[in-house]
Amino acid sequence: MSKKIELVYGYDGESSVVAEGFDSAAVCWFKESKKIKSGSCIISLPGGDVKYFVKVYEIPFFKGLVRRCFNHKIKNIWEVHCKLYRQGVNVPKPVALMKKKSKKAVCEYIISEWLEDAEDLRSLESSEDVFILQAARLLAGIHRLGIVHGDFKYANLMYSTQRKELFSVDFDGSKFKSTEPLFSKDVARFLVSMSEAGVSVKHRDGFLHEYAGLVDVCVEVLSGRVAPHIKKIINRHKIKYPERY
Q: Nearest 5°: phi and psi at 242?
């Protein structure tokens, strides 16, 4: 296997050129490491106490448009992550985008801060008002930047017990598209996630009212927009996850 690896982008707060903590020695370790598998994992660099979360994207050696589509998607995920962090939205700090080539495929790695003290909402008493209101503010903050999350749900919201704040993760479905239908779909996805977690109608309404106020839209109008999406998502989940219903 070829061990060519390069630092494509690093995050320094502005230009996203230099990767903090990822110097040539770190890149060399990354190249040799057998700990980095497909999917995702947590790593620590030699001699360091800081842990990183690594998301791995394996791209087969397709040709033409298919290959370019994969490359564009991963770069888009990285750019969304950086913009959200730069604008003060609660997301783990992006660290680096790296690429490793072999004979059969190209692997790209998005490396970010590991929220060691955090748990996702599925494992918490997430019907509490504090989580619901923070989730509404988090989603509204993402949408105000013209970004669609694409998979805003309990499993992709991490609560830091140390910072007492929610963090949004997993931007694989994100888009730089300020379109009302996609924003409404994000809202609907979270409302379904709340329902599947057994959250009361009262708290779901609380989320909707808080979000509507932050994006300056009438609650009745918003409810009408999300209703068709909720129906579609529920019908799909009844087939895919029958144990939830």
A: -60, -25
**Are the C-beta atoms of residues 76 and 176 closer than 8 Å to each other?**
yes
The confidence score (pLDDT) of residue 17 equals 41
Query: Is the separation of the CB atoms in 158 and 119 below 8 Å?
Result: yes
**pLDDT per position as a tens digit, 170-208:** 999 999 987 899 999 999 999 999 999 988 999 999 999
From 42, 12, 24, select the one nearest 113 (Cα to Cα): 42
Q: How far apart are CA 169 and CA 119, in angstroms?
A: 12
156-169 in b/e form (b: 16+ CB < 10 A) is bbbbbeeeeebbbb
Q: What is the average pLDDT across 127-135?
A: 82
Q: Are strands 94-101 and 165-168 parallel, antiparallel or unpaired?
A: unpaired
The CATH code for residues 118-244 is 1.10.510.10
Average pLDDT on 22-28 reads 57
The CATH fold assigned to 4-113 is Phosphorylase Kinase; domain 1 (3.30.200)
Q: Provide the token pair at 35.
A: 């700990």
